[in-house]
């Protein structure tokens, strides 16, 4: 099974900051990597698939990059609604697996 | 609009069964693969099961293999999860999600396994 490891587990940042979250796969997953945002009491929301393709309606301040085993999610110019928990997930093969999450908090 | 609405959750004793449903609307259900994903209290998402668009292929997480069965009824635009031999650790919110990269999620239905 493929293990997904995110870093950091938590991150404190200010409005207007640029932040980067890293996700590492335990084996090559090509670009079969998705990113999700989750707010309390809500289901995860798809942000990015194919490592770098934004879902429709997702603002361009979100960007993803990487291929193989190493991936990043970058949020430029943080706004209040961006403070949430972010998960990466591989869909290269079954069983699908998620990272443990990165909680982004306001400094 | 594209929508997934889960139902069927509840409180159940260990060892008992429950069937969850996911009603799909606003898209072509019959050409989309579907998944169940669960989230235990305070934990991250855990993928549970997959079914192909035509229903011929299914995959399961090891934690539920042999106990859970995923199925679909295209005539009703509905996805199901039959859960047998439930355990305390199956307690979670269960979401259905669409397609390979889980682009649409339902709000979920809560399953609590407790004696």
Bin the helical content of chain A.
under 10%
Determine the most extensive contact between two protein chains.
Answer: A-B, 22 and 20 residues
The arrangement of helices and strands of chain B along the chain is: EEEEEEEEEE
DSSP E strands of chain B, number? 10
Give the overall shape of chain A: globular
Structural class of chain B: mainly beta
Bin the strand percentage of chain A. Answer: over 45%
What is the number of helical segments of chain B per DSSP (H or I, 4+ residues)?
Answer: 0
The stretches of 5 or more residues of chain A where confidence is low (pLDDT under 50) are none
Protein model, in words:
The complex is a heterodimer of chains A (107) and B (115). Chain A has 107 residues and is mostly beta strands. In chain A, 0% of the residues lie in helices and 50% in strands. Chain A has strands spanning 4-7, 10-13, 19-25, 33-38, 45-49, 53-54, 62-67, 70-75, 85-90, 97-98, 102-106. In chain A, strands 2, 4, 5, 6, 9, 10 and 11 form a 7-stranded mixed beta sheet that branches. A 4-stranded antiparallel beta sheet of chain A has the order 1-3-8-7, with no helix packed on it. With 115 residues, chain B is mainly β. Chain B is 0% helix and 49% strand. Chain B is built from no helices and 10 strands. Chain B has strands at residues 3-7, 10-12, 18-25, 34-39, 45-51, 58-60, 68-73, 78-83, 92-98, 109-113. In chain B, the strands form 2 sheets. In chain B, strands 2-10-9-4-5-6 form a 6-stranded mixed beta sheet, with no helix packed on it. In chain B, strands 1-3-8-7 form a 4-stranded antiparallel beta sheet, with no helix packed on it. In chain B, a hairpin with a 5-residue loop joins strand 4 (34-39) and strand 5 (45-51). Chain B is globular, with a radius of gyration of 13 Å. The chains are: A mainly beta (107), B mainly beta (115).
């Amino acid at each position: 099974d493929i293990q997904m490891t995110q870093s950091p587990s938590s991150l404190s940042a200010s409005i207007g900051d640029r932040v980067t979250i890293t996700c590492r796969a335990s084996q090559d997953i090509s670009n079969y990597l998705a990113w999700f945002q989750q707010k309390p009491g809500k289901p995860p929301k798809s942000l990015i698939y194919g490592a770098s393709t934004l879902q429709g309606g997702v603002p361009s301040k979100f960007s993803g990059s990487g291929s193989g085993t190493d991936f990043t999610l970058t949020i430029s110019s943080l706004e209040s609604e961006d403070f949430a928990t972010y998960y990466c997930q591989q869909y290269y093969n079954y069983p699908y697996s998620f990272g443990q999450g990165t909680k982004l908090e306001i400094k | 609009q594209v929508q997934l609405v889960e139902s069927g959750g509840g409180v159940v004793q260990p060892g008992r069964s429950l069937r969850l449903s996911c009603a799909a609307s606003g898209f072509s259900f019959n050409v989309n693969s579907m998944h169940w994903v669960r989230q235990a209290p305070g934990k991250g998402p855990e993928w549970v099961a997959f079914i192909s668009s035509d229903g011929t292929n299914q995959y399961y997480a090891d934690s539920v293999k042999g106990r859970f069965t995923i199925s679909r009824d295209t005539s009703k635009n509905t996805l199901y999860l039959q859960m047998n031999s439930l355990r305390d650790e199956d307690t979670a919110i269960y979401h259905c999600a669409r397609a390979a990269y889980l682009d649409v999620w339902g709000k979920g239905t809560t399953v609590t396994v407790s004696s």
